[in-house]
Design the sequence.
C-alpha cells in the first residue's frame, strides 16, 4: 500500500469516528491471515536443486487441483508461498489459480507490524529444473520457438495492488547461478468491470537459458501485514514450436466450484434435512471451451455416499451440435444435462451425520488437458448450518458500538442450539479484536426480519485457531436453547466500537439471509456473499429424565404462548395436588416461583419481553425447560 493510501485511510478513520452515529454501515476488508492453510513446516526458499531430476517439455500447470490442496503441485514446483484456491479469481481460464498476497506459506503475515505504506518481497513460486538443453532425439536451439505463456489477474475478489506493488517473472541462468527478471507489472486498481485475465507470452531464446537446469519463478511485492495486494495466475505452460497465434490449448475446462444440490444452504444439520423442503430443483456448473472451433462435448455427474457407493447419476448429455469457443459463447452451464436435481440424490431424512461426493465430468475426445475436466463437491449433512463454502475471501464488519449482525435460519423440526461457529479475522488490529467482546443473540422472526430477542448470552472474546485447516472456532452457549419449528435469526451484538471482522465468502451469495442493525433498525445486506456464522445444533437438553417425568413433560401445557400478562399451566395427574413452578430467563436466572395446582392462572405482568423456561416440580418429579415467550 502506498503513502497516499495511508493518508487516505487515516482521514477516513477520523471521518468515521466523527460521523459513526450518522453514517455507520457494513463494510468489507482484506484478510490478515488464511484460515484454509494447515500448520506445516515452511519450506526454505531457493533450496538447492542439484538432486532434483529435471522436467521435460512441455510444462503445464493450471492449478485445477485447488479443491484438493492449497499448495502448488510438487510435480512442478520446488517451493512456494502462494495460495492455490478457487475463490479469489473472477472468470478464470480454468478451475483453480495461484494467488500472491502478503501472507506466508502458513497463511500468516510475513510481518504483522508492517505499516500499510510498506511494500516488500512477499510470495515466491519456483519451478523445478526444466531440461532445455537436449533430449534423446534433439538439442534445443533458439530457433525452436520455446515460450512461456501464462495469464494473470489483479485484485479478483481480494484487494487491488497499489503502484509500488508488483508481480514479476524471473528466469534462472544455471551457468551463471543468477536469476534474471524478464517481465513485471506494477500494481493498479482495476475498474469494476475489469475482471480479465491478461495473457503474457515470453520467449526463452537466450542460450544462457538453454540448459538442463533452467528454472523460472514468479514473485510479488506487497504489504506484508495481511492478505493484501492480490495477483492470481493461471494456465502456466512452456512448450516449443509455439506459434505466435497460439493462445490456449485445445481444452475444455471447469472454471468454478460446483453449486450445492441443496436449495438453501451449503451445509445443513442432518436432523433438519427434509428432501421435500431442502433439496434444490436446480444446480449450476460452469465450464468453458478453450478450443478455437466448435467441439462435440459430453457432460455427466454421479453421486457417491460416504462408503463410495454410487447412489445417483445423470444420463450423458451430448452437445451434438458442438460447443462454441469461449470467445464466442462464454461459459456453459452443466445443469443443461439435467435441469432438475434428482430426487434420488439423497435420502429423505438421515439418522446420523454423513456426506456425499458429487463428481462432475465434461468430456471432449480431442481435449489435451484432461486434468481440469473433473470437479468434485462434497455435500455435508453435519450438526451445523452454513451458507458459506468454508473459506473467506474478505472480512465483514460494522463500524458502530452495539451493532448487531444476524443470519436467517429455518428449523424444519424442533431442535436445540448449543453453540455457534464464527470465523473472526484479526486483519490489522488483531490484538484489539481479541480484547474486544460480543454477545451471541437469537432473535425471533418478525415477518422476514429479526424481531423480538429471545436469547442473549454472556459476553465473549473472539478467538483465533492457529495452524488449522478449514477450522472455525466454536463459541458454546451458556445453556442450550430449545427452538421450535420455524425461522430464527442468529448472530452477534458487538459490545465495542472495534471492527469485528467476520469471515466473508465472496463465492456463494446469500446476502438475502444477512441483516444488520447499527441503531436505526434492521437492514438487509447489500453486499453479495455469505457470512461465516454457523449455528451448531443438537445437545442433551434437558438432562435425561425418567419415564414418568418425560411423560409429565410431554403432557404439560402452557397457554397462551407467546403470552402477555397471564399464563395458565395444565398438567396431568392429581389436579388438586400442589406443584411448584419456576420461571427462568434464558441465562438460567430464576425470576418467578410459586406453588400452584393444575389449570391455575399466573400473573406474569412484571416480566419483560423475552424467552423464558418453565420448571415444574411435584411428587419428586422435575419437568424442566418448557419454553415460554413473553411478547407484549
Sequence:
Amino acid at each position: 500500500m502506498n503513502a497516499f493510501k495511508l493518508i487516505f485511510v487515516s482521514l477516513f478513520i477520523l471521518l468515521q469516528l466523527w460521523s459513526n452515529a450518522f453514517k455507520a454501515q457494513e463494510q468489507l476488508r482484506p484478510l490478515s491471515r488464511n484460515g484454509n492453510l494447515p500448520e506445516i513446516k515452511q519450506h526454505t526458499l531457493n533450496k538447492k536443486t542439484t538432486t532434483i531430476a529435471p522436467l521435460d517439455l512441455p510444462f503445464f500447470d493450471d492449478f485445477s487441483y485447488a479443491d484438493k490442496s492449497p499448495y502448488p503441485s510438487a510435480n512442478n514446483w520446488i517451493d512456494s508461498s502462494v495460495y492455490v484456491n478457487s475463490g479469489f479469481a473472477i472468470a478464470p481460464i480454468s478451475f483453480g489459480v495461484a494467488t500472491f498476497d502478503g501472507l506466508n506459506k502458513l497463511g500468516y503475515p510475513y510481518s504483522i507490524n508492517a505499516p500499510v505504506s510498506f511494500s516488500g518481497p512477499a510470495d515466491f513460486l519456483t519451478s523445478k529444473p526444466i531440461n532445455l538443453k537436449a533430449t534423446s532425439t534433439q538439442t534445443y536451439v533458439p530457433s525452436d520457438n520455446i515460450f512461456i505463456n501464462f495469464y494473470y489477474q489483479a485484485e479478483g475478489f481480494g484487494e487491488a495492488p497499489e503502484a509500488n506493488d508488483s508481480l514479476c517473472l524471473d528466469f534462472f541462468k544455471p551457468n551463471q547461478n543468477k536469476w534474471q527478471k524478464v517481465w513485471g507489472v506494477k500494481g493498479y486498481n482495476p475498474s469494476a468491470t475489469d475482471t480479465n485475465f491478461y495473457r503474457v507470452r515470453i520467449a526463452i531464446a537466450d542460450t544462457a537459458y538453454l540448459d538442463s537446469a533452467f528454472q523460472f519463478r514468479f514473485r510479488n511485492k506487497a504489504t506484508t501485514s495481511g492478505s493484501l495486494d492480490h495477483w492470481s495466475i493461471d494456465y502456466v505452460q512452456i512448450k516449443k514450436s509455439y506459434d505466435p497465434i497460439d493462445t490456449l490449448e485445445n481444452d475444455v475446462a471447469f472454471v468454478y466450484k460446483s453449486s450445492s444440490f441443496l436449495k438453501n444452504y451449503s451445509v445443513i444439520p442432518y436432523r433438519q434435512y427434509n428432501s421435500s423442503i431442502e433439496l434444490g430443483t436446480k444446480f449450476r456448473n460452469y465450464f468453458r471451451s478453450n478450443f478455437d472451433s466448435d467441439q462435440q462435448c459430453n457432460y455427466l455427474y454421479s453421486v457417491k455416499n460416504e462408503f463410495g457407493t454410487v447412489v445417483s447419476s445423470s444420463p450423458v448429455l451430448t452437445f451434438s451440435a458442438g460447443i462454441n469457443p469461449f470467445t464466442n459463447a462464454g461459459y456453459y452451464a452443466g445443469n443443461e444435462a439435467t435441469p432438475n436435481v434428482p430426487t434420488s440424490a439423497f435420502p429423505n431424512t438421515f439418522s446420523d451425520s454423513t456426506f456425499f461426493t458429487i463428481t462432475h465430468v465434461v468430456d471432449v475426445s480431442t481435449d489435451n488437458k484432461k486434468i481440469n475436466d473433473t470437479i468434485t463437491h462434497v455435500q455435508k449433512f453435519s450438526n451445523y448450518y452454513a451458507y458459506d463454502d468454508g473459506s473467506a475471501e474478505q472480512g465483514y464488519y460494522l463500524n458502530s458500538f452495539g451493532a448487531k449482525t444476524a443470519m436467517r435460519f429455518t428449523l424444519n423440526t424442533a431442535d436445540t442450539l448449543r453453540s455457534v461457529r464464527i470465523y473472526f479475522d484479526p486483519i490489522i488490529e488483531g490484538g484489539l479484536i481479541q480484547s474486544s467482546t460480543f454477545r451471541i443473540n437469537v432473535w425471533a422472526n418478525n415477518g422476514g426480519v429479526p424481531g423480538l430477542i429471545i436469547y442473549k448470552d454472556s459476553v465473549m472474546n473472539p478467538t483465533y485457531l492457529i495452524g488449522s485447516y478449514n477450522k472455525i472456532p466454536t463459541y458454546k452457549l451458556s445453556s442450550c436453547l430449545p427452538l421450535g419449528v420455524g425461522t430464527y435469526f442468529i448472530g452477534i451484538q458487538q459490545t465495542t466500537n472495534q471492527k469485528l471482522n467476520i469471515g466473508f465468502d465472496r463465492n456463494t451469495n446469500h446476502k438475502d439471509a444477512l441483516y444488520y442493525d447499527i441503531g436505526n433498525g434492521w437492514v438487509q445486506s447489500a453486499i453479495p456473499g455469505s457470512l461465516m456464522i454457523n449455528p451448531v445444533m443438537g445437545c442433551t437438553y434437558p438432562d435425561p429424565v425418567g419415564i414418568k417425568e418425560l411423560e409429565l413433560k410431554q403432557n404439560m401445557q402452557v397457554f397462551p404462548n407467546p403470552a402477555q400478562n397471564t399464563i395458565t399451566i395444565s398438567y396431568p395427574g392429581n389436579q388438586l395436588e400442589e406443584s411448584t413452578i419456576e420461571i427462568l430467563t434464558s441465562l438460567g436466572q430464576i425470576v418467578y416461583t410459586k406453588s400452584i395446582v393444575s389449570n391455575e392462572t399466573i400473573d406474569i405482568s412484571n416480566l419483560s419481553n423475552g424467552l423464558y423456561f418453565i420448571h415444574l416440580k411435584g411428587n419428586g418429579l422435575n419437568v424442566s425447560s418448557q419454553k415460554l415467550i413473553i411478547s407484549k
Observations:
- Residues 254-382 form a domain with the Immunoglobulin-like fold (CATH 2.60.40.10).
- The first helix runs from residue 3 to 23.
- The longest strand covers residues 295-304.
